[in-house]
Amino acid sequence: MSEPTPLKDVLAGESICLAQGQFSAFVVNLIHGMIQELGATVSTDKKSSTILLTNPSHQSFRNTPDLFQPNAHSEPKVYPYHWLAWCNDQRRHTPLTDLKSEKPLFTYPARSEDWRPLRAYVSVNLCKFKGEEDGREARQNCSRDLLLHGALIVSKRADADILVIDKLTEFYKIAKAENKKAGRSWQRFLERNWVLGSIRTGKMEWWRAKHDQKKDSGEESFGDEPLVQRGTGRPVGSERGDYTPDDDDFLCRWLAAHFGTLGSLSSRITYVMLASDSARYPTAARHPPQSWHERFRKKGHILKERVHRYVREGVDKSSRLRKSDGPQMCKNRAMKNISLTRVMEKSL
Q1: 21-64: per-residue pLDDT in tens?
Q2: Sign of CA dihedral 250, 256, 258, 264
Q3: Do 321 and 339 touch, CB atoms closer than 8 A?
Q4: In sequence order, what are the residues at sequence separation of 6 or more whose Cβ sits closer than 8 angstroms to the Cβ of residue 223?
Q5: Region labeled Disordered — which residues (predicted)?
Q6: Distance CA 85, CA 102 (A)
Q7: What is the CA radius of gyration of the chain?
Q8: Could you write out the DSSP letters of every residue in 224-256?
Q9: CA atoms of 133 and 288, how far apart (whole Å)
Q10: Do 7-94 and 119-201 show the same overall fold?
């Protein structure tokens, strides 16, 4: 029996590019890492690439599917991004026909998250199946199932959208308390059977998970699944909050600190990033990404000027003080200007 191909040789010589606009900043580095692990090079130029990776769940793919149809005679070749996981698993340049599903399953089911691949953290504290010796083997097998169907595996719990864990273990209580303390309300704790059930049915059981829970435990399901169906920007069951002057000021200071006067101010992904910053800034969690985006669009002529003013004043990356401010200056200005220090002091 021949030795398996080393990972670094599986896609050696290939130059791989991601389809423009189909992958958010949250997952690009993870996919680039997978490309490099298989020995290929990352390219940003579609024309000079040999392979183009797409996200079939993305709206741009669904709107113009003909542009991304695989063609044996074309360059670059077109593959869905989870094809990388199949190449890794089989240690070969896997033919597209060998994929059990050409469309990834585990993608975020919401416009607010740009239909990106789900990031999953898999615990060693899992329910073990027959033949698995320990939690490490269970984690390896569960991670494989997730990867082959479109999820991306992360090593830090803070980076995950879903955490797969046995809820009967003591570690679940620890992780849950950690999650609550850090304010990571977007994360969902799921069990291994959910992963297998989703693969078996070919769809993620968001609705069933939601309805099966008690009224006060809705945090365990993806609340913004209906976002796709209703076109709203808020999770199911939550009330739309009114915007306050503090909200507007937070929005402008955050944009000034992180994007300055760049064109990214109008990008939907910018507001996904803002909402995901709620662990540091609780105000970010007051509204969903789409709502923040709409707020800036509707009041753009007013808010954009304020963003530019904050940039000129030198708002730094901390989003809390102007670069030129010392402690005393900030104290003197506290009653006059609303700053992120005041808006977010509960998070410090």
Answers
A1: 889 888 999 999 999 999 999 999 988 999 999 999 888 776 66
A2: positive
A3: yes
A4: 210, 235, 236, 237, 238
A5: 215-240
A6: 12
A7: 22
A8: TTHHHHH--SS-TTPPPPPP-HHHHHHHHHHHH
A9: 43
A10: yes
Residue-range domain boundaries for the chain: 7-94, 119-201, 245-313
Determine the residue type at 136: R
Superfamily of domain 7-94: BRCT domain (3.40.50.10190)
Under CATH, what is the fold of the domain 119-201?
Rossmann fold (3.40.50)
Q: Provide the 8-state DSSP code for 1.
A: -
E strand or H helix that includes residue 41: strand 41-43
Cβ–Cβ under 8 Å, residues 291 and 240: yes
More confident residue, 125 or 113: 125
Token pair of 81 as six digits: 């991004």
**Three-state DSSP class for 203?**
coil
Running DSSP on this structure, what letter comes out for residue 133? -
Nearest to 176 by CA among 220, 213, 215: 220
> Nearest-5° angle of CA 80, CA 86, CA 87?
100
DSSP 281: -
Residue-wise pLDDT tens digits, 181-211: 888 888 899 999 899 988 988 888 654 333 3
DSSP letter string, 134-173: SHHHHHHHHHHHHHHTT-EE-SSGGG-SEEE--TTSHHHH
How many percent of the chain have pLDDT more than 70? Answer: 74
Q: In the prediction, which pLDDT does 173 show?
A: 93
**For the purposes of burial, counting CB atoms within 10 Å of the CB of 330, is it exposed (0-12), middle (13-18) or buried (19 or more)?**
middle
Rounded to 10 degrees, what is the CA torsion of 205, 206, 212, 214? 160
Question: How many residues are given for the chain?
Answer: 348
- Among 215, 120, 122, residue whose Cα is nearest residue 159: 120
Distance (Å, rounded) from C-alpha 179 to C-alpha 158? 8
